[in-house]
Amino acid sequence: MNAQAFYPIGTPGQPWGDAEKAQWLSRQTRQRSYADEVLSVIERLRPRFDVVEYGWLEYGTETFPLFAFKSRDWRDDLPVALVTGGVHGYESSGVHGALQFIDRHADEYAGRINLLIAPCISPWAYERIHRWNANAIDPNRSFRNDSPAAESAALLQLVAPVSDRVLVHIDLHETTDSDESEFRPALAARDGKPFEPGEIPDGFYLVDDSEHPQPEFQQAVIAAVEKITHIAPADANGEIIGSTVAAPGVIRYPLKQLGLCAGITDATYKTTTEVYPDSPRASAEQCNAAQAAAVCAAIDFALAH
């Protein structure tokens, strides 16, 4: 089955050129406001935290400042907890879960660990409810030197001065029905490859680092989240999104090799969360709370071990 059967741009078997990318871009429409929904919250929280502008995106006539939170009582003798959200702009609870953690829980860690939190890494995609940036590039396959994605390059520059002190990194994501209906077909079409339908897991799961797995850490996060929302079961093949389930709700990827955000440091403890907001068993509020709980559990485990 070819990509053209599912996606209206491009020629089956041929990667996109500039014309196809321009056609794709012309179809993207602004559906929500980064300023109203994200920057306004950042401004509200600014009196309690140090807020740093770490980058500036320009797409056509549009510009987007990039902000991160830092502990106001930052101490060089403490390790760092890195929290990232909105690498894929359409994954709403990654953004709002990070902001909820900052608002409701970050104060609990004062004097115990330094917090560095980038809640919305891809604001252009946030507004379009999309996975890619305006250049049809997936930032979460682009965290490497000479990154083609400005979003990824900016975060790498932000983290570089403290990368050797990051103890724990939790990257907040979602798996949605639109992964199967839009984003995977678009990827196949863009790359000139056949689209092979998959199965969207119903529930929360984590992606551990296959090069340096931390099974106890992953299970601590799962245990915290399952109090809020359900954990994704394995499919009939014992897999979640095509990967073998290593433990309940946990799969493994080579994070650094794939250019994933969770692989940007050598943190001992790192994971990618995947919330399923389209489940009839989960609300947006639950998804945000699950992300915040995952952050708390990750930092708590790292501090205890």
Automatic annotation (TrEMBL):
Residues 30-305 form the Peptidase M14 domain. Signal peptide: none annotated. InterPro entries: Peptidase_M14. Belongs to the peptidase M14 family. This is M14 family metallocarboxypeptidase. The lineage of its organism: Bacteria, Pseudomonadati, Pseudomonadota, Gammaproteobacteria, Lysobacterales.
